[in-house]
Design brief:
About 70% of the residues lie in helices and about 0% in strands. It has about 500 residues and is an all-alpha fold. Strands 1-2 form a two-stranded antiparallel ribbon. Helix 2 crosses helix 11, helix 2 crosses helix 15 and helix 15 runs antiparallel to helix 21. It is found in: Membrane.
């Protein structure tokens, strides 16, 4: 059975170009990346003993009919049933601060590997770093239910370790793009990163359904198991460079290497020109914009299920369904805006700098305005879902904006730059969960959520202003630093075209 399936996968890989296989597995990888991350945000609604039965208990039998039952009929147990089958599962007595502490602990590990992960990918290859990070994260996900049942601290340890593994994935994919994707096609490739939103869109309703029929632990077993299978495919079909790929055609390899030319060095730079990099306004435009942007995004993805449960009183299945809509919209926008951006650059309609600033502004100002509208319309379930969906829909355009900007200005150090940017955003992720926990501690009122929405509006719009003022799409002079000679060194290879490799 396994041999026949392996042969089928090899045959499918042979039908596609190497870049198509890379794009497909990268897209699936980022879908799983966020599935491994957000499964807890939907499961934790059912993991925690409700402190107010009128607000948080669920009647899943009625949920499966697609109707929102009057919450006054809900009981305070975790005995749910579908078609006469009861699901009995332990719940945990955590308050709002403890719950948000569990959600935020992911970022403790996440922040530790952002910068090292990006630099490691530049030195040994992004394919290895991305693949191993996802594999170990999947195994940790499988252990999550056991850790939760052991004790509160064990769950926190597993979530920190999960963040440690996933922290290296995002910066690691930039060095992969630097050697595999021609410069004028990189916006489209970067849209694969936004498949993370598609993964969240699928994970949310699937988790909601699984919880209703099999209990909250099932979501960790499903997402972790799929992650392990993906990792095996990644190591089997993706290689570090076109030159090392055994199935690449001479034509495809030549096309890639000629398009990339000297912007990416044949020999990976052995050191980072930290002085020039840290003094570059273009680098800080990416770091600050990404930090502020992701602070808003993480606040939404981590707190959206809780807001819908506590304020809008959606049951667990409806919670998963409506929580997924914004992510689906974000992925659609990511793909559409990336193709449009690359088309405008190919045609010469807009320069790279103008393209990045235009799409960044749209992707950040629009969510800021939507969060401001939530202040006034957020208690209406229909308006709330529409505004959240529009906010994340517009935010998907970051793939055509600042998200791949490190590949424009310094492809040789794109992993390091994105690692720095994601390190700041990781602190923002923990800060966002702490902020919501403090504001809503024993005070789950819409007034407190209005404060959250105002903070998000200001954050999004400030991020857009920073990038418009100091961002650029021009290749920086320090992208190809001269190699430091060692005793016995041969001729330097910086800036040598990939196509000259024998």
């Amino acid at each position: 059975f396994f041999q026949s399936n392996h042969l089928s996968l090899v045959s499918l890989a042979d039908m596609l170009s190497c870049r198509q296989v890379l794009n497909l597995l990268t897209m699936l990888g980022f879908m799983l990346n966020y599935a491994l991350r957000v499964n807890l945000t939907i499961a934790i609604v059912d993991m925690v003993v409700p402190n107010d039965a009128a607000n948080t208990s669920q009647n899943v039998s009625d949920a499966l009919t697609g109707n929102l039952t009057d919450i006054s009929d809900f009981d305070n147990s975790n005995n749910t049933s579908t078609d006469g089958v009861e699901v009995l599962e332990e719940r945990f007595d955590w308050d709002e601060r403890q719950t948000n502490f569990v959600l935020g602990s992911f970022f403790w590990g996440y922040v530790l590997t952002e910068l090292p992960g990006g630099r490691l990918a530049e030195l040994i290859g992004g394919v290895r770093v991305f693949g191993h990070s996802m594999l170990w994260a999947s195994l940790l996900t499988l252990l999550t239910p056991l850790a939760a049942h052991l004790n509160y601290v064990a769950l926190i340890v597993v979530r920190v370790a999960l963040g440690f593994m996933l922290g290296a994935t995002w910066p690691a994919i930039h060095p992969v793009a630097a050697v595999w994707i021609p410069p004028m096609d990189r916006s489209k490739f970067m849209s694969n990163m936004m498949a993370s939103s598609l993964g969240a869109a699928i994970t949310m309703p699937v988790c909601g359904y699984l919880i209703s029929v099999s209990g909250w632990a099932s979501v960790f077993y499903l997402t972790g198991g799929i992650g392990v299978l993906w990792s095996l495919c990644w190591f089997a079909f993706v290689y570090e460079t076109p030159a090392t790929h055994p199935r690449i055609s001479a034509e495809e390899r030549r096309e890639i290497e000629e398009a990339i030319g000297t912007s990416t060095s044949k020999k990976r730079p052995s050191y980072v020109p930290w002085g020039q990099l840290l003094c570059s306004p273009a680098v800080w435009a990416i770091i600050v914009t990404h930090g502020l942007s992701v602070f808003g995004f993480f606040t939404v993805i981590n707190q959206l299920p809780t807001f819908m449960s506590k304020m809008l009183h959606f049951d667990i299945k409806k919670n998963g369904l409506f929580s997924s809509l914004p992510y689906l919209g974000k992925y659609v926008m990511a793909v559409a805006s990336s193709y449009l951006a690359d088309h405008l650059r190919h045609k010469g309609t807009l320069s790279t700098t103008a393209t990045r600033k235009l799409f960044t502004s749209f992707a950040l100002v629009t969510p800021g305005l939507m969060m401001a509208a939530q202040v006034f319309l957020g208690m209406d379930p229909t308006w709330s879902v529409v505004l959240f969906t529009l906010a994340l829909f517009a935010h998907g355009a970051v793939t055509a904006g600042y998200l791949g900007n490190g590949l424009d200005i310094a492809p040789n150090f794109s992993g390091t730059i994105f690692g720095m940017a994601n390190s700041l955003s990781s602190f923002g992720g923990f800060l966002s969960t702490w902020m919501v926990g403090v504001l809503t501690y024993h005070n789950q009122t819409f007034h407190q959520w209005q404060i959250v929405f105002w903070i998000l509006a200001a954050t999004y719009i400030s991020a857009a202003i920073v990038f418009v003022v100091i961002g650029t799409g021009e290749l920086q002079s320090w992208n190809n630093p001269p190699e430091r000679k060692k005793i016995g060194d041969v001729a330097q290879e910086e800036g040598m075209p990939l196509k000259t490799e024998k």
